[in-house]
Design brief:
With about 375 residues, the protein is an alpha/beta fold. It contains 13 helices and twelve strands. The relative contact order is 0.13. Its cofactor is Fe(2+); Mn(2+).
């Protein structure tokens, strides 16, 4: 049984109160999931900056093999005449990351907004706080939402909410006005057709992240919401380098999504190089908040999720995701140290139990089974 490549997202020493030394102390956590956050979207990531980040991570006794994210310029998603320039920049970034030993790039294809919430510090009954989405409180004006997100960030940068990109929000929405779901899929295919041959040559796997929430918002299309969308994306380019980040929280925001079944379908196809494993709590229609990772604390069956990974021999990269702020911590919304570290130990505990339970069953089968009656195909 393969071991999980456990990681922890880190936003860099200039913008993350969590240190690499602290991450190093989380059991069995060897991977830092990082990025360059000071390079404008669409520009080439300089090799010297990538190498400096890698050295910083490795000097702390950790590895940098997963990048989250190399964000995609809106002109690529829109299909603007300038998209080829930005695709060429993206290709050069892939090559540069490959030289640094990066194996996976997590990305998304969400128009305008990345993930969104209506409350970044929702108070929970136990005194902790977590991010919440309540569609009834979603502002009708996107600019009002952006102001709320900026206010709730409390000075921390929010991944996917680049202020320089969103400064001209009305113009950005106008640019997307003729982009339907079908057109967005076409533009994704155009992008994948350009980059996947490069990914294959340089051994860097693309792992598309689901939409969050997984539904159209503000009239903008969403194209990675469920299993059916995954099948469509998979067929856009038949290569294991065209893969997915299965985020249990994002897909789990729609209760109709059968997460263990999705894992059991796509992991054996070798299309899942990266997992985000987290829990959420549904508290009403189109209303949920982030929760602690254990099944008892949310609406997702985390055991069945981990069992699906175990049963499909998953050996890829994995990290906990949005946790609460607990024990007095007041960090970046969703990305505190303590609750994510607790999440890792919980996930690893289940993984150890699954492995040892399987070994015990195998041992018991050998002890009580006499040849040839336990040969494959015999049902005695």
């Amino acid at each position: 049984m393969a071991n999980l490549k456990m990681g922890f997202r880190w936003f860099g020493e200039k913008d993350d109160p969590i240190s690499l030394a602290q991450i190093r102390q989380i059991p069995q956590t060897k991977q830092v999931v990082g990025a360059l956050f000071d390079v404008p979207v669409g520009e080439v990531w300089p090799q010297e900056k990538i190498d400096a980040l890698k050295k910083q991570v490795e000097d702390a006794g950790l590895k940098l093999e997963v990048i989250e994210s190399v964000n995609i310029h809106d002109d690529i998603k829109i299909g603007a005449p300038t998209r080829d320039k930005y695709i060429e920049n993206y290709i050069q970034t892939i090559k540069n990351l490959s030289k640094a030993g990066v194996k996976v790039i997590c990305y998304n294809f969400m128009p305008v907004f990345d993930w969104l919430r209506t409350d970044l510090h929702h108070q929970l009954a136990d005194g902790s706080n977590a991010m919440m989405y309540d569609e009834s409180k979603l502002p009708k004006d996107p600019e009002a939402l952006m102001a709320e997100m900026n206010s709730g960030s409390r000075g921390f940068s929010l991944p996917g909410w680049e202020p320089e990109r969103l400064a001209a929000l009305k113009e950005l929405f106008a640019a997307y006005k003729d982009v339907s779901e079908e057109k967005l899929v076409e533009n994704l295919k155009y992008f994948l057709d350009a980059i996947i041959p490069v990914c294959e040559k340089f051994d860097v796997r693309m792992a598309m992240h689901p939409d969050d929430p997984p539904k159209p918002l503000f009239g903008l299309p969403r194209i990675f919401k469920n299993r059916e969308d995954m099948l469509r994306i998979e067929q856009l380019h038949e290569s294991r380098y065209n893969g997915f980040t299965i985020c249990t929280g994002s897909l789990g925001e729609n209760p109709a999504n059968d997460l263990p079944a999705i894992i059991r379908e796509f992991v054996p196809k070798d299309r899942v190089p990266f997992m985000h494993v987290r829990n959420i709590k549904h508290v009403g229609k189109n209303k949920f908040h982030e929760s602690a990772h254990p099944s008892t604390e949310g609406s997702l069956d985390m055991f069945e999720i981990m069992k699906a990974l175990h049963d499909t021999d998953y050996d890829g990269y994995i990290r906990p995701d949005h946790g609460r702020n607990i024990w007095g911590e007041d960090g970046r919304p969703g990305y505190g140290l303590y609750d994510r570290a607790l999440g890792i130990t919980y996930l690893l505990g289940m993984w150890e139990a699954l492995i040892k339970s399987n070994l015990i069953q195998m041992k018991a089968g050998h002890e009580f089974c006499a040849w040839p009656f336990c040969m494959p195909g015999n049902n005695f």
